[in-house]
Design goal:
Blueprint lengths: L5 H18 L3 E10 L2 E9 L25 H15 L8 H14 L1 H14 L4 H11 L2 H40 L3 H14 L1 H4 L4 H20 L11 H7 L7
Antiparallel strand pairs: 1-2
Length: 252
């Protein structure tokens, strides 16, 4: 089973390097530079057996990691950090103390951690931006803000999904209504008779437009059951859709 988490990957790499360093002529050193939650840049350096790094003049250099598009990972890290600097209010962007605070935070916590705390600082800091940012980083005050944003995004996704489902149901009703209108007269009357039989108790004492509405709705329900492969059973259409049917004319 493939390893998923960074800690598991690092553990396997450390064991592999231990084997290499013990049983081969090579000595390889690995250093880990976290830059986001669950992400890190891995640096590998070939060493001499006395643990001194082989110089560049000896044509040995550290390995450069690349992403699937072939872009060096370190370049992406630099781009991520630059985005953090861009979030800082303009009057603080040129301050070396702010720059160092962000860089140190990225090395210690990762860029996503720093990102949410910069956003929190921007929203809540009234004075002394650097001191507030340091406190936010130390206590991860931005976590609640991030969770609120994620909850809001989830709510929007849920609303969009529900709206899509409702539209699909409405479109299904429209197709059913068209199907019924285009039925031959004989089949349409047979369908109406089946609807009347299924609604015998509900139709008792009712007549006029209300009875016609109930019959029309039941006819649609019967067709829906057939479309869904359920000839004799099925949930009634949602009330909101039955209400929409009221605007349609009732066939005489």
């Amino acid at each position: 089973m493939a390893k998923k988490y960074l800690s598991e990957i690092l553990e396997r790499l450390r064991k592999a390097l231990q084997q290499i360093n013990t049983y081969t002529e090579l000595t390889v050193q690995m250093t880990v530079e976290p830059y986001a939650r669950g992400k890190a840049v891995l640096h590998f350096k070939k060493l001499k057996k006395d643990s001194k790094a082989i110089s560049d003049e000896q044509e040995n250099s550290s390995i450069t990691l690349v992403d699937p598009q072939g872009v060096p990972v370190q370049n992406q890290v630099a781009a991520d950090i630059q985005e953090l600097f861009d979030l800082v209010p303009q009057e603080h962007q040129e301050k070396l103390t702010i720059t160092n605070t962000i860089k140190d935070g990225c090395k210690k916590y990762g860029t996503q951690y720093v990102l949410r705390n910069i956003k929190y600082t921007n929203s809540h800091c009234k004075k002394n931006y650097r001191a507030f940012l340091i406190k936010a980083l130390e206590n991860d005050w931005g976590l609640e803000l991030q969770e609120d944003e994620e909850a809001k995004q989830q709510m929007l996704r849920t609303q969009a999904e529900e709206a899509k489902k409702e539209e699909q149901k409405y479109e299904q009703i429209r197709r059913i209504q068209t199907y019924i209108r285009e039925l031959p007269e004989k089949q349409r009357r047979e369908l109406e008779m089946q609807a009347r039989l299924e609604l015998a108790d509900e139709l008792e004492g009712k007549n006029g437009s209300l009875a016609k509405l109930l019959i029309r709705s039941q006819m649609e329900q019967i067709i829906l059951r057939k479309f869904n492969g359920k000839e004799r059973e099925g949930d009634m259409l949602p009330t909101k859709f039955l209400q929409r049917l009221r605007i349609n004319s009732i066939a005489d």
